[in-house]
Amino acid sequence: MALSTPATADVLLSRVVQDATEPLAGSISSVIVTVLTATILSTLTTQRVLRVTDWRTLPPVAWIVFAIFLDSWLFVFVTAILKFGVGLGASFGICQGGILLCLVCYVTTKLIYIFLVEKAYIIRQSSVPTGRLKSKLYIFNLFGMLGIYVVVSILNFIFRITRQHNGECVIGMQRVAMIPLISFDLLVNVYLTILFLMPLKNLRKVRHIQRNAANERLRTVASRTFIGAVATTISSIVNLSVLMALDGEPGWVCLMCCNVDIAFSAIVVFWVTHKD
């Protein structure tokens, strides 16, 4: 039988300490949420793939949906290895990797902004046909908002919280970065929501004059996108507000909340687009 080296003993001890800092209920909940999120993402992606008849004719919004699902699934996969394989409390570097993954996930899952911008363009384009790069509103929505979002995101990478206490990994973001992020998230989603409400208002005005399949479909798309925008806004702001209020939270809690947020957003995106 091989003898344990001091280094091996230290690793085992660190894992024992780490496991002791996380309650059993938390460990079970983390496993359940991770498995459910991965299953949901895989199922939704499969459903979308099966509906594709010709990949060459897929519209941009469909590719954005696939990108959101893929990015979300990769986050769940990588964080599961980090959480259940390596252990967030194994070292300060691993703990720091946890918050960086959370930040990268949050930043990249904001592909949903591009998704909403694209949906707003599709809805408005039905009444005023204009090419994407010829539409000043589309260019402003895409590049203007994303430019500001990049700046706000950089603040969160700079002012992140990473600390270890008795083997427990605590991660989060400082308020100096969280407040601009929450404010920006709220303002952008309110603005995009207004873009969806305006076509709905116009459609209601003309529904007695011209009621056809095209208008009905447009009304459905606008209504679903509006509801989806509101739902994802509430989910995102609640998650960020809790994170800010706690001024850092155990790594396993942060990752579990991220998984829940990801699963919810994926379901909303699928629901919004499943009739497209």
From TrEMBL:
Keywords (A to Z) from UniProt: Membrane, Transmembrane, Transmembrane helix
Membrane-spanning parts: 24-46, 58-82, 88-116, 137-159, 179-200, 221-244, 250-272
The keyword Transmembrane appears for this protein: yes
Entry protein name: Uncharacterized protein
Superkingdom of origin: Eukaryota
Lineage, top ranks: Eukaryota, Fungi, Dikarya, Ascomycota, Pezizomycotina
Keyword Phosphoprotein applies: no
